[in-house]
């Protein structure tokens, strides 16, 4: 059975793997802030550093969810391209991402995001997303 809309009250199961624990959508500013609690199971180097794929997943998740909230769940944004810049190592603990919309057309959107751990900017990303109508 397919849905005609993403149910914003029932987040995808993978968010629990990333330890997603907080979401704030600012409709006026067209931004979303998401919190993540990363455990040692998502690290390498004997638990010292969060693996880069999970850093990327947190950034991608925040940009996609911004578009989901912006369209009130009517569209599923498929990531066509993502560019990630790793600026500092992330360690197990609390992360916060902030995603913004740079430009939106009829079927394509351009977004960006920053991922912080405390005061440290860990990574940035930009993405191109295609809207898939549900």
Characteristics:
8 strands; 134 residues; six-stranded antiparallel β-sheet; Thiol Ester Dehydrase, Chain A; two-stranded antiparallel ribbon
Main sheet record: 6 strands, antiparallel
Tell me the distance between the termini.
12 Å
Q: By CATH's scheme, which homologous superfamily applies?
A: Hotdog Thioesterase
Percent in helix: 10-25%
Number of helices, where a helix is a run of at least 4 consecutive DSSP H or I residues: 2
Instruction: Encode the helix/strand succession as letters.
Output: HEEEEHEEEE
Mean pLDDT: 92
Q: Any idea of the CATH topology?
A: Thiol Ester Dehydrase, Chain A
Strand order of the biggest β-sheet = 1-2-6-7-8-5
Strand and helix map with partners:
Layout (H helix, E strand, L loop, with lengths): L13 H4 L2 E7 L4 E8 L4 E2 L4 E2 L1 H19 L4 E12 L6 E12 L3 E10 L2 E14 L1
Antiparallel strand pairs: 1-2, 2-6, 3-4, 5-8, 6-7, 7-8
């Amino acid at each position: 059975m397919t849905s005609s809309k993403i149910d914003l009250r029932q987040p995808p199961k993978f968010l629990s793997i990333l330890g997603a624990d907080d979401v704030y959508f600012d409709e006026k500013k067209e931004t979303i802030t998401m919190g993540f609690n990363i455990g040692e199971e998502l690290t390498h180097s004997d638990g010292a550093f969060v693996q880069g794929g999970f850093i990327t997943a947190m950034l991608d998740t925040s940009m996609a969810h911004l578009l989901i909230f912006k369209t009130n769940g009517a569209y599923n944004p498929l990531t066509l391209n993502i560019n990630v810049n790793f600026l500092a190592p992330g360690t197990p603990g609390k992360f916060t991402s902030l995603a913004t919309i740079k430009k939106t057309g009829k079927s394509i959107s351009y977004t960006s995001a920053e991922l912080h751990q405390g005061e440290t900017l860990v990574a940035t990303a930009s993405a191109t997303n295609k809207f898939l109508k549900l």
